[in-house]
Amino acid sequence: MASSSSSSSPAPRFTYHVFLSFRGEDTRKNFTDHLYTALTQSGINTFRDDDEIRRGEHIESEINHAIRQSKLSILVLSSDYASSRWCLDELALIMDRRKTHGHIVVPIYYDVLPSDVHALSGSYGEAFAQHRNCFDEDVVDRWREAVSQLEHLQPHLVLQDRYESEFVQDVVKQVAKLLNRTLVDVSTHLVGMDYRAGLVNLWLQNESADATVAAIYGVGGVGKSTIAKIVYNQNFDKFDAGSFLADIRSVSGQPNGLVRLQRQLLSDLTKGSAPKVYGADEGIVKIKDALYRKKVLLILDDVDHSEQLDVIMGLLQWFHKGSKILITTRHQHIMGAHAVSLMLKVKELDDKESIQLFSWHAFGGADRPDDGYELLSKEAVDRCGGIPLALQVLGSSLCGKSNEVWESVLQRLKRVPESDIQSIFQISFGSLEDDHDRNLFLDIACFFNGMDVDYVARIAGGCGFFAFVGIKNLTRRCLVSISEENKLTMHQLVVEMGREIVRQESVDDPGKRSRLWDHKDSFMVLKEKKGTDLVKGLTLDMHKGSPHYQTQSQNSDSKGNVSKRQRRLGFFHHKPADSTSQGSFSIQSAARMQKLKLLHLNDVKFKGDYKNFPRNLVWLRWKGFPMECMPNELSLEKLVVLDMRNGNLKYLWKETKFLPELKILNLNHSQNLVRTPNFNGLPSLERLLLKDCASLTELDESICDLKGLELLNLQDCTSLRKLPADFGTLKSSLCVLILSGCLNLQQMPKDLSEMESLKFLAADGVGKNQAQSISTLSFSIFPSNLLSLSLADCNISTLPIRFTHMPFLQSLNLSKNPFGYLPEDINKLGMLETLELELCTKLEALPELPTSLSILKADDCSSLNRIANLPNLLEWLDLEVHGCERITEIGGLFRLDRLSSIDTEVLSNLGLFDLESFEGIEIEMSNALSCTTIKTPIQVLQECNIFSTFIPGSEVPDWFNIRVEESSSLSMVLPAASGLKIRGLSLCTAYTGKWESEEEKETSLVDENYLKIINETSGVKWCYSPMFFGIPGAKVAGSRNSMLWLSHWTFGEYLEAGDELHIVMDLAACFEVQGCGIRVIYEQQQESSKGKEIAESSSSSRNLSGYEVGRDAYLLSHHMFLTHQAAPRDDWDDLSGYEYLFEPNASEDEYVTDDEM
């Protein structure tokens, strides 16, 4: 079948995410194999040539095809890579593809220096010297040119002396980021998990008309969460929305924990635009709304109480059909009344799997023990009982150790019960060679689990630890991991082990322990003055520690619900309790702990002279500090982090304080703060956080002397009127500036354009309350190096003519502004990934957008009627245009036109001959993309080479010479007509709504409508779901209103006389099909030029490859772009997950023979 193409054809589809180019003899069985496994387990579909392509005379075309079918290529540049002509051919093809199609290339320098590769020296120089003697000069020059381009590629990754396992993990993270994929962290080397995850995948791939729940259970550390992560990574992009809620047991035990989980779920479901939630009951209602019409993958990790399920997932019937909920738990019977379709117990690893996983960690990536360690390894593995976490931790602790150390550790293991995982962890902890590492581990377990790595590293450095080296050592021992969000994370079992080690320091007397993390212990030690110099860290939240503290119970119920009246009165803002209800301790209680370095308090008050307060504090976090000013006698000279958020401070201190080590000062939500301190005493300050300091009117001029200040957050400082005159002196250090919500700020900093270090600027609502707001915007006031700019709700009515002043911009937010257009050259922003235009109610059209765009948010742009293009919609674009009720055209996708604008030949092919009879008639139509309805004169939709219109009517017109009544499908053989070629098909569907009233109609789902054509002869299948659909009126005088859907398919090149067709009208459940008809349109002797022009320029080209979801199976729909984005798979012949789109429903057929035509 012939096909044509045009510039408007959809972007190409990808069978693979990644193409791996590597020298097999160098890396096939080690690094490349580990990288391939890690990519695959992270859900990244990767092509690796394991003799999948036969080397031969067609190598270039075959490799080129594989590269074309991949979005990104990884080049594993090993020392012998350039000696292979096959590798250099691949490299040249990949770099050509990068030049012509923007193919993403990531070079990895494995055991080779980048400088040797770029300069063609070392092994690369030797290889090219050999090639000059063996190949034509043109061939070698092409290879040389390809190598020369590597120098300019970013990112490039260099192994050098790093551990391969860590390096592989970094590669996966970089690739995931470049692919714009949301992933959860999975260990780089897993054993036995693919098989176990496969069992869950079988359940996931089982299509069901309803939402279903599965639970996987087993002992702690057996791999339940790991399996859930693998399953999520491999499947999340097959759903409309996905959410992985980790560590539910731990999070739900924290203040407002369940509400925080609800907020995360809402954010995931709404892709970051979640409404605020103040209580669990309110949250569950909003979750129900957010689940509407979304096919969702939800992972609930580590559930230990049925109430958690009730509060987070609500009722199963709220979930859209096809949704999947996967629960991990240690408790088999946790599900209670919740219906579960699969209960899977995760079994421990068998002996072979255990030795393999243990060897990987104990012997530097090997699959089996080193010679001489076989028996020792077996003995160690037997003690772990097949628990993966225990095998990882114990193996890592023995890595590189002598036989004597191994035997000593195993002797200690013999004294503990077999598979006692806590004892195994403690032995691993004891094997840490450095006291710094052991103390850092205990600090993380007791105080810093889940916190930002850089934040913790600053504090640890102030305590005398080599922080980053220590963290790296702990990650190598598998005692700590680092999340995608750069958070330190510990498995809960490891946390429990660390805290138990501290508890054992003094079982009966908490005051003699090094760390007090239990709030009740901390309360008792302070109340009874039992602290000692042994205490180095203490945390106390009075809501948890004091048996008499009633604030939580007075203001909320057991789920954390806050009443509407309390919210209206401001109770949801944290305010320190007054002295009559707040816990109060003698200053002597703290004075007894002079070695204290880490102190975290919430709503705590001390009475007495602060000169005796601990003088060695490195980290002081005091939420709800009750005084208006910090006592002058309080000694803070060693502080690295001072966090006084949500306090009663008016002034931080009255005199200039000299804190030479202070790097982070957090005064967020200090509602009474009227001025900042003099910063001359804070020479090392890097981060200053003043969010929601509503009484702050100005910043001290000395802020301009902070030459190391990197981040300044002034969000919602609503009284702030100006910034210091010399603010531009921060131009060499300041990277992040947040001014959003500074409604009374009179002007932007004068020297803003000269701040070359500034990368992120947020100024939403700046100056909104000023008479002279930013009505006309000149981008020349902003620095040219900006990566992210947010100017939402700034009353901007006119934008600059050009955007090219900021060529590196990746994110632009102009939401809630009254401008009417975007500059045409926005498509010149070649690095722009995110564009936000929500609630720009005067915006009428969008110009051509850059192909780099991956997120477009334009909800509720009520005047928007035309979008010039939506790049990559069917591949990866995250699009939100809900509430844009006037959209009638998106270039290259669809257009809605009045009858008077349509060529008469097209109208006649739709069966419309008497246009005057339609004058004055209005119909109601739904827009599936914007989720809106409009009332409009009868119009024609042009989409996917199909013309459609909707008109009132209840019977299929006689013009459709093949008709069936009370049936939604028919089969036929296409007849020949005097040698004329078939030009297309015209179809009619008569249908009515099932609703009894307008109110019932409003709640009906009207967008899931399909017209399916299956060519049984050629095997080609089409499923069309139109952007717009006509909605019949409600029942009037006992009879229902009906409509006709008329469509003309210009698919003649795909059809031949004698083809057997099966046609199905599969409409939403709220509609009832009354009959259908078809007419075959043949070539005429003469075609009008207008008719040709319209057919050729209809919203999609005739090349339908961009709509293919399986071999010869085409989903012709744009509003179902999420389904398209989920379609790329290894096996193109497998329609698994998409069968419902092409189901023939043959049992309902009426077969039409030639005699009936």
UniProtKB/TrEMBL annotation:
GO biological process: defense response; signal transduction
NAD listed as a keyword: yes
Highest taxon of the lineage: Eukaryota
EC number in record: 3.2.2.6
Keywords linked to the UniProt accession: Hydrolase, Leucine-rich repeat, NAD, Plant defense, Repeat
Chain segments carrying region Disordered: 545-564
Entry coiled-coil feature ranges: none
Domain TIR: 14-179
Polar residues bias (residue ranges): 548-561
Catalytic activity: NAD(+) + H2O = ADP-D-ribose + nicotinamide + H(+)
SUPFAM superfamilies: L domain-like, P-loop containing nucleoside triphosphate hydrolases, Toll/Interleukin receptor TIR domain, Winged helix' DNA-binding domain
Gene Ontology molecular function: any one: ADP binding
UniProt cross-references to Gene3D superfamilies, sorted A to Z: Helical domain of apoptotic protease-activating factors, P-loop containing nucleotide triphosphate hydrolases, Ribonuclease Inhibitor, Toll/interleukin-1 receptor homology (TIR) domain
Name of the protein in question: ADP-ribosyl cyclase/cyclic ADP-ribose hydrolase
Organism this protein belongs to: Linum tenue
